[in-house]
Amino acid sequence: MSRTDEIFEPALSGKKIPILTLDNKWHKLFTQKEYSTEIKRMESEMNKLLKRQAKVNEESREIKKLKKAKMDEIVVLADEMGKVPSKKLEKKMEECRETVTACNEKIEACEEEMLELPRQINHLNHKLMLATMEVCYHKLQKNTEELEEINEWINGIRRELKKKVVRKQEKEAMNHLLYSYMHDIFGADVIEIFDMKYDPKEKYGNKKEPDDKNDDSDLENKGDDEDALKS
Q1: Which of 14, 22, 35, 109 is most exposed, with minimal Cβ within 10 Å?
Q2: Residue 216: pLDDT band by 50, 70, 90 thresholds?
Q3: What pLDDT does residue 214 have?
């Protein structure tokens, strides 16, 4: 038993579904590549049914308008024939009656088609919804798998980043210790003597002795890396 028959079909029971091809949100669900041959076919068929429904409604209105005009004309002709009967009036009357009869037949045909078309539209719309659910299901599954892979990659990068940040802080602290010691001996010339690219004091400052275990300046300067350590 397929997922459509076992899960999707029962899920639609009692649900009022909008005409999908008239729903902008439905069109946004798919890219051009994701339109299956089946969905394209049903969409095309649905649009034809909707156009036919609109045309039949318009035809019905026009026929009813013509019928009313002829009925009004019959009333006028009947009044004229009551006063001055003539074959010309009789002929016009007969033509009007024939037109009214033809209008009645066409109106009946339109009404029958107007009853059948909604049934066809609803049936096709139901099938289109099932096909849509299949596409959405597979798309959701695929996206979920990719999201899991992306999350796994991000978590791995975070772990690696934490290690790198800790290593960076260790290297900076050691450079600060080495620089401070050499600076005490050689003074500012230590930058040139050891070909240093930057002055560690610019990051760590010079508030306390470098061998102080509770060095507040070290804690302050670690703030630059706190965001990187947050998961």
Answers
A1: 14
A2: very low
A3: 43
